Amino acid sequence: MDSIQDSTKRRDKTMLTMKRSHFLLVVVALLLVAHDSIAGAGEKVILDTDMVVLYDDGVAMMMLAKHPDIELLGVTIVPGNTWVSEGTAYALRQLEVLNRRDIPVVLGIRYPLRAGRYETMEVERKMFGFSSSYIGCFSRIEPASYFDVYRAEFGGRPEIKPADKHAVDYLIDTIKANPGEVTVMPIGPCTNLAIAIRMAPEIIPLIKRVVYMGGAFDTPGNTTPSAEFNWWFDPEAAKMCVRTPFADQLIVGLDVCEKYRFNKKIFDRITAVNKPIAKMFKNKYGPEFKKNPGYTRLVWDTIAAAVVIDPTLITEEKTRWVDVNSDYGLDYGRSLGYSKQGPAGTQKARILFTIDEQRFWNLMVDLLIK
Fold first, then answer.
1. pTM given for the model
2. Which stretches in the chain have pLDDT values below 50?
3. CB-CB contact of 64 with 122 (8 Å)
4. Distance CA 172, CA 187 (A)
5. Which CATH superfamily does the domain covering 44-260+299-369 fall into?
6. Centroid of chain to Cα 228
7. Nearest alpha carbon to residue 38 among 366, 369, 363, 286
8. Contact 61, 368 (CB under 8 A)
9. How many whole angstroms separate alpha carbon 213 and alpha carbon 257?
10. Selection from 101, 107, 91, 251 nearest residue 186 by Cα
11. Where are the domains positioned within the chain?
12. Rounded to 5°, angle at Cα 271 from 268 and 272
């Protein structure tokens, strides 16, 4: 009888141990899944950007550079908001503030694909009737070099030098060195990526995903009634990219970006700490809030950075076949989305419409002040 009881006790103990082990395995698995959902647990990213100081490209870069689960492989510079020389100087300075001298800054293509676009911009504006619209760097003369811009804007000499390579070559080489691992983020015009996939189409299946900030599908454009600025700046490049069969394409356009605005409440949270970034925010946005406490601004590219860091921020997206109008006319640069099969050559893309706003602001602020 005692032997039977001992055997039963041993069996029960073994079963309890097995149940505990199984429970622990389940917990570990859930934790791993949760961790993987945040930035893919070590997401490798190339940020392709028409860089400005702080909002919005600058803050997007800071968020990516400061998140522990993001490996920012490089910052490639494209014209758009700024000329390449300007964007390079701004990227270098902000990486200096972050003390991230390890992140390469790489100069890219200087002009959009359409020949003579800059030189004929005034004629285009008169023809198509958007004379008062924002046209980015097209509104001013291109500076001679990033060094001149840095010295004029920040004084002295940059502590970091740009990489001794062209952005297109950097994209190609880095993607080939990390097959299936790199998220490419064109948060400005798509010129660098378009040239890279044209020069080396073999990289297309090697790209993990492409996350754009650009386009406007169910909402009007912001440079013309038809077109959002980034894709208007180089429609041929945007068309080439969205028609490429990448494994995954996510579009963060005006449909989501025009719903969320930086305001004084967020400004106060960022500037409450004694950090160099807080000083930058005070210098740039403090005068605006002093003149008008109700001042707000859109934060476009930071939303793209946030959903790369944490895809669970996405609360609504729609999948469509996507195209860009590259016919030189009133609809030049217009984003086109088809809920059913689109024209021949179009590819599916996910279009972002809403995010969890409170979690987005918390993520952004926490990263900036850490």
1. 0.89
2. 1-5, 8, 14-19, 21, 23-40
3. no
4. 18
5. Ribonucleoside hydrolase-like (3.90.245.10)
6. 15
7. 363
8. no
9. 9
10. 251
11. 1-37, 44-260+299-369
12. 80
